[in-house]
Amino acid sequence: KTRESLFSLLGGYLYNTLAVDLFGGTGILAFESISRGADRAIILEMARPAVSMILANMKMLNLENRVEVHNVDTLRWLRSLDLVLPMWPDLPWVVYCCPPYRMWKTDTQRLCDGLASMMAASPVGSRFVCETELDFDLAAAMPGLDWNIRPYSPANLAIWEKS
């Protein structure tokens, strides 16, 4: 239900975008983005079993030419963003930041710094989607940004768009 609400908030279709899933898990957000029209998707995931599952699903869905999967620590990867950006297509991004909830409290600064770097580098029209626990105040953690925050128990969905 939360995922359905998320894509409704994004307008349903994601034509002419690059989807970037910072904490891939199953890869479902990237795969769903492709099915809704995103040109390409990039999935970052640290757990090797999850990466194996994502790769198998990617192959089964015949998306090898449209999805990149990287077995990386996202927080470290975010610090070297300037190295990967030249290889990305010149499209607005849809960035999903849905880490394990505890990371919002244990790694708040690194997450927010990484997101801020991506936001600064992102093309106009890019959108950032963060999923947090209901009790985490993303607007306070990243002040000065006009977040659209919606509660979907047990989580909040927060969307920011670069205009």
What does this structure look like?
By secondary structure, the chain is an alpha/beta fold. It contains 8 helices and 7 strands. The chain has helices at 2-9, 28-35, 48-60, 74-79, 81-84, 102-106, 108-121, 138-141, and strands at 18-21, 40-45, 67-71, 93-97, 127-133, 148-152, 155-161. A 7-stranded mixed β-sheet has the order 3-2-1-4-5-7-6, covered by helices on one side. Helix 3 links the parallel strand 2 (40-45) and strand 3. The two termini are 28 Å apart. 32% of the residues are buried.
General form: globular
What class, by secondary structure content?
A: alpha/beta
Helical coverage, percent range: 25-40%
Mean pLDDT: 95
Q: Quick one: how many beta strands?
A: 7
Strand percent estimate: 15-25%
- The N- to C-terminal Cα distance equals 28 Å
- Helix-strand topology string: HEHEHEHHEHHEHEE
Sheet with the most strands? 7 strands, mixed
Low-confidence stretches are none
Oligomer: single chain
Q: How are the strands of the biggest sheet laid out side by side?
A: 3-2-1-4-5-7-6
Taking Cα atoms only, what radius of gyration do you get, to the nearest Å?
15 Å
Number of helices: 8
